[in-house]
């Protein structure tokens, strides 16, 4: 990477043609059209909070340095902001009258050309970077891994956006990273995280690529259509809507992509599904179930996998299997099929109980972390099971 230091570019230069898109919350262009302030791979403008943005302007007004700014030279007289987007957008909004600052008395002030003209002549400290060598793109990617934009390291999806920037990411961000999207509120019932930090986009990509987002982006980087991504996301959301009649907080952030793959082809009765969900939530309130978030998957799977819930009650097929093994073994040895009766001296020591006379018991107590699984199941006669108490 070749980096050239420029100290001759001023606040006024950068603000020439500055345009702030209020709707999308981003500074778009500057430097007389030469500079893209928020390239598609950049994080959204997050300083618009009357604190960080005002702090940038106040630093400039006090003639403090606002730190190094990096531009990437993408073509002759064409630049993109690598690092500095938040700061540039903040002072750009001030200079164009779109950001008020507060004085020490708490009074708001707009940019006043008569008063603040000197500000436009303040030089900035800018490094202009150019990728060099055989693989300039690789250099730019590694650059992104080392810089912190707006004081926070890029998260995984932001890095992917930077690495695979192009028409596909631009389109995808317009849909999935846009908090003013009408669907966002609904989507966020099922998808956790901040859309501005790319959490919804990350999940959409995760679903469509079955967990291989980077490969998917590499393959589709120059596509101009995101139809497949949209269709997949919409299908998953529509399926959730069709199966579950209502929404619970615990549904947010589940692995819906995987659940869709696993269960969408299985027909189900939404009335029955929701009735079971409600019943199991009541069980969870009674502390019979430990994992509420898995209730949805448990119901989708026909309630066959109690491990999901850490439930106390063995399903009948596990009890039946344990009964058969124990009873066959007991008959061979000529002892009771209740292991506790078998070691006693009473008349029941050789009694073979019927299945209905026995109950499934956790060998390692459920309260001590014992699973409700076949390996941890033994059948006891009812008297012994009740006497044991703590199941
Ligand atoms: Zn017994």
Structure in words:
By secondary structure, this protein is an alpha+beta fold. It has 4 domains: 153 residues, no CATH class; 110 residues, no CATH class; 38 residues, no CATH class; 73 residues, no CATH class. It is 41% helix and 13% strand. It contains 17 helices and 13 strands. The strands form 4 sheets. Strands 1-9-5-6-4-3-2 form a 7-stranded mixed beta sheet. It has a two-stranded antiparallel ribbon with strand order 7-8. A two-stranded antiparallel sheet has the order 10-11. A hairpin with a 2-residue loop joins β5 and β6. The mean pLDDT is 87. Zinc ion (ZN) binds next to α16, β13 and α17.
Percent helix range? 40-55%
Radius of gyration, in Å, reads 31 Å
Sheet of most strands: 7 strands, mixed
Q: Average pLDDT across residues?
A: 87
The side-by-side strand order for the widest beta sheet comes to 1-9-5-6-4-3-2
Uncertain segments: none
Number of helices: 17
Bound molecules: zinc ion
What coarse outline follows from CA principal-axis ratios? elongated
């Amino acid at each position: 990477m070749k980096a050239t230091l420029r100290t001759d570019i001023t606040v006024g230069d950068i603000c020439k043609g500055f345009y702030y898109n209020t709707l999308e919350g981003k500074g778009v262009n500057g430097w007389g059209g030469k500079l893209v302030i928020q390239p598609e791979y950049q994080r959204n403008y997050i300083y618009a909070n009357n604190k960080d943005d005002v702090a940038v302007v106040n630093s400039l007004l006090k003639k403090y340095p606002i730190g190094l700014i990096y531009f990437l030279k993408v073509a002759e007289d064409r630049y993109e902001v690598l690092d500095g987007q938040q700061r540039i957008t903040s002072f750009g909004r001030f200079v164009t009258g779109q950001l008020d600052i507060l004085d020490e008395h708490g009074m708001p002030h707009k940019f006043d050309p008569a008063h603040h003209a000197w500000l436009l002549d303040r030089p900035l400290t800018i490094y202009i970077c150019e990728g060099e060598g055989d693989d300039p793109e690789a250099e730019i990617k590694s650059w992104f891994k080392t810089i912190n934009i707006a004081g926070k390291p890029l998260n995984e999806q932001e890095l992917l956006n930077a690495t695979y920037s192009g028409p596909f990411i631009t389109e995808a961000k317009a849909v999935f990273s846009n908090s003013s999207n009408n669907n966002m509120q609904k989507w966020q019932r099922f998808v956790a995280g901040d859309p501005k930090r790319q959490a919804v986009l990350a999940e959409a990509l995760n679903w469509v690529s079955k967990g291989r987002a980077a490969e998917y982006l590499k393959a589709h980087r120059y596509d101009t259509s995101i139809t497949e991504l949209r269709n997949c996301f919409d299908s998953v959301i529509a399926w959730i809507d069709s199966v579950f009649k209502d929404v619970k907080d615990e549904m947010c952030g589940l692995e819906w992509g995987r659940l869709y793959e696993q269960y969408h082809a299985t027909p189900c009765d939404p009335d029955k599904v929701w009735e079971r969900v409600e019943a199991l939530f009541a069980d969870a309130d009674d502390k019979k179930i430990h994992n509420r978030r898995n209730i949805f998957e448990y119901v989708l799977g026909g309630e066959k996998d109690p491990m999901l819930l850490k439930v106390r009650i063995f399903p009948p097929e596990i009890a039946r299997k344990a009964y058969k093994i124990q009873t066959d073994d007991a008959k061979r040895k000529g002892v009771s099929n209740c292991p506790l009766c078998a070691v006693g001296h009473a008349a029941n020591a050789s009694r073979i109980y019927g299945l209905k006379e026995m109950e499934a018991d956790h060998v390692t107590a459920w309260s001590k972390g014992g699973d409700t699984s076949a390996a941890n199941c033994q059948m006891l006669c009812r008297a012994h099971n009740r006497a044991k108490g703590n199941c």
